[in-house]
Amino acid sequence: NDFIPPVILKRIIIFDKELDDGSSYADLKSLKLSYKQNFFSLEFAALNYDHPEKNQYACQLIGFDKKLVQLGTNRLINYTNVPHGNYTLKVIASNNDGVWNFTGFEMKIVIIPPFWATWWFKTIVVIVFIGAVFLFFKLRENRIKKEQLRQTAINKQIAEIRMTALRGQMNPHFI
Fold this sequence. Notes:
By secondary structure, the protein is α+β, with helices and mostly antiparallel strands. Helix content is about 30%, strand content about 35%.
């Protein structure tokens, strides 16, 4: 059998629940998932009907798997704890006589990060932190200036009292 079987996506399962968007998965080229949906399974089929139980499969989630994973006759791919990011899933398959379709099936998978892992949230946190540090130093500087003004006023009062006392001592001598 020299037929090169095309590879199609049959099902998407997220947390053991089938994703049903009412359309065929055959033309699906990208999949967006939230960071909470990082446990998913995908089922594929090689369209070879001559002893389909002998069809072989291999896959790689580029950006997550380091190399191509041989699945044997298993058509279901399971991924758990996939961190947020952009990935490309590549699935290749062979017919019952080992003729591989190396073009296979490719799909972009985007796992959207939680809001606290986004660049804009991190930027806001840094700005707030810098603002808090700046405010802390400004308040401390104002407190030190007030303390210096209070100390200067006390020293001025002490000098005036001493001057009054000195005048009081000198006046009887000149009388």
